[in-house]
C-alpha cells in the first residue's frame, strides 16, 4: 500500500502526465490520481481506454480514515475464507495496517475487530522510544492445517510493525471467530533486533501455500528479498514458523537492446520490492508482483532456484529512461520518466504499480491470474498457465456505491456463496473511497473538507464473467 505524497509533488509530476498522455494511443477517461511512494516514484494514473469493460461493486465495508481522528488507518489487503459447512457463512478478513484487522460477513457487516499488538517496551535508558506497534499488511488463508490433533483453517498475516507473522485459527461456530495462536517465540523474519525493526525494512507482502508442508512467502519492505517460511504446530497450543530459504530478486535489468535499467526510486535506500503474491499449488507456481518491474513466476517446489524464474509480464514503464533530481523541499528525489524514449519493452495493459495478485480457479488447472494495474485503476487478466498470455482488463466503476481506485490487495474465490455471489466474489481494497453523493441541500450543510478514506468493495464475479465473456466454474477446492 502506498502512502500519500504532498500536493507539491503531485504538481511536479504534471510534466509526467503530459508526456504520458502524448505517448498513449488510446485516450479514455482518467480514473484519478495514483499516489505512490512504495519504493520511490510518485505516479499519476494513466488514462483508461474507453473500450475496457466496467463492472460495479455491490457491497462495501465500513470506511477507515487517514487522519488523526481515524488513527491514520489505511486498509490494505483482504483474505476470503470459504466455509466447508455453509458457504453463505464465509468470511472476509481484512488488514487495516496500524488499525488492526476487521472480519466481515458476505453482507459487509463487521463481525470482529482485532487491535494491533502494542509496541514493545523501550529500555529506560533510551530518551526517545521509536519502537513500533503491530502493523498488519497482508493476509492469506491456509485450509486443513494439522493443529492439536485436528484439522483447522488459519489466517496468516504479515506484521510489518513487528517483523513477524501473526497466525489465527478460524472458529466458525464460536467466539472469537479468529483466535490468535502465534507462538511467543516466533522469530523475526528479516531483522536481528529492535533497532533494525525500527528502520522499517520488515515483513511486507504475504502469500500462503500448502504442498507437503504449510508455507508462507513474505516480502521485505524496500528490498528485493522474499523469505520462504515453513509454518508448523509448535506443540504447546501455538503455531510458529521457520525460515527455509530466501529469494533475492534482481534490482537491475538487462534490456533487449543490452542496455542496463534500474527502476527509479525517490530514496537511495529503497529497492524495487514486492507486495502482491499468490501461490498456485495445482500448477507448481508462485506469482510475485515486483511493483515497478512486473509479475514473476517461480517454481513453487524449488522457488529459490533462479533458473526457473520468469518475468512473465513487465509493467508498461519497464526500461524507460528517466531523470532523477533532488527536491530540497520534499527531501527526496523526483523521478521524471522520458516517455519519448520508450522502446516498448513493457506491457501496455500493466501500469505500475503492479499490486495485488489473485487466482480465479477455472477448474482442471485452468483459470486466470488477476493483477491490480494500479497506475490506471484496472484489473488485468492473464492466463493461469504458460505462456501466461494477457486476456483482457476491466475496471470497477461507480454504481449504487462508488467504484474502486488505487487498488492494493484483492482476492477472488469461485465458490457459490449464495445470494448475490452465486458465481463467486472478488473483494478489493479501495484506496480512494468516496462518500455517498449528497443532494444540493445536504452538500450545503456538509461544507467541511472530505476526509481521505479507504475500505473494501465486494464485486460479483458473475458480473465480471459476463462483462468479459468468461467461462465460469463454481467447484471450489479447499486446498
How do the strands and helices of this protein lay out in sequence?
Elements lengths: L6 H6 L1 H10 L30 E2 L3 E2 L3 E2 L12 E4 L9 E5 L5 E4 L5 E5 L21 E12 L2 E10 L4 E7 L7 E3 L13 H5 L4 E8 L3 E7 L4 E9 L5 E10 L4 E2 L5 E2 L12 E7 L4 E6 L3 E6 L10 E5 L7 E6 L4 E6 L16 E10 L2 E8 L4 E6 L6 E7 L13 E4 L11 E9 L6 H6 L7 E8 H8 L11
Parallel strand pairs: 1-27
Antiparallel strand pairs: 2-30, 3-30, 4-5, 5-6, 6-7, 8-9, 9-10, 10-11, 12-13, 13-14, 14-15, 16-17, 18-19, 19-20, 20-21, 22-23, 24-25, 25-26, 26-27, 28-29, 29-30
Write structural notes for this entry.
The chain is mostly beta strands and 479 residues long. It has one domain: Neuraminidase (6 Propeller), CATH 2.120.10. The chain is 7% helix and 38% strand. The strands form eight sheets. The protein has a five-stranded mixed β-sheet, with helices on one face. Strands 2, 3, 28, 29 and 30 form a five-stranded antiparallel β-sheet that branches. A four-stranded antiparallel β-sheet has the order 4-5-6-7, with no helix packed on it. Strand 12 and strand 13 form a beta hairpin. The longest helix is centred in the N-terminal third of the chain and has 10 residues, at 14-23. It is globular, with a radius of gyration of 21 Å. It starts with 6 loop residues before the first helix and ends in an 11-residue tail after the last helix.
